[in-house]
Amino acid sequence: MSDYRDIFRKPETKNWFKAAIGMKITRDCLLDIVKEATQAFYHAIRKEINRKHGILENSVCSQCHTPNVLPCETNNKCCTYRKCVFHKIHKPLNCPSNNLCNSICKEIVSHHRFRNCSNSHSFQGPTWVYTEASKWCVQSWQIARCYLSNDGYKDVNQAEDADFNGIVNVIYNCEFFQRYFKDDLTQKENICTKVIQV
């Protein structure tokens, strides 16, 4: 037991604790911004869908599942060439609410920073396995979940569950968040990439 006490007294251990506390404080501050911005992003999507397709902003759908509105193709990182498990139960179809969910799906893709990567190894695109389209119209965080990284966020059902990296990934991967930063997030090295590397 005395070995553990010695570990806690070491300067490098104290520095790790300080770094962890700093990350927690920063994450908590960013969380409020991300929650507010995620709601604003949802409303921006709905305005754009109304402008493009005439679907009223107060229209809602809770019947579609993510596989329903996502085409079955290998680029979405959910489907494979052979039997597609992602589309096994819910087949691709048009949303019964005037294609509302299909339109939201397209807007999610259009706002993803890595939507146009042609190299399949670097294509990240939206993370469809974490989101549930049936909740897109009532929980803006379900849309934000599409911008989380591909690993380790299955159980992050609300913004409060996201860790520091999750919050930063949403900010970086969703181009809508650029309006909250002076730093140009399109640059290869920017505030978000630096933070993710650290």
Compute the gyration radius: what is it? 19 Å
Estimate the global geometry from the Cα principal axes. globular
List how many beta strands DSSP finds: 0
How many DSSP H or I helices?
Answer: 7
Quote the beta fraction: under 5%
> If you average the pLDDT, what whole number results?
88
3D architecture notes:
The chain is mostly helical. The chain has one domain. It contains 7 helices and no strands. It has helices at residues 2-9, 11-53, 66-69, 100-110, 140-144, 164-173, 191-197. Helix 2 packs across helix 4, helix 2 packs parallel to helix 6 and helix 6 runs antiparallel to helix 7 (191-197). The longest helix has 43 residues, at 11-53. The protein is globular, with a radius of gyration of 19 Å. Pfam families: DUF4559 (PF15112).
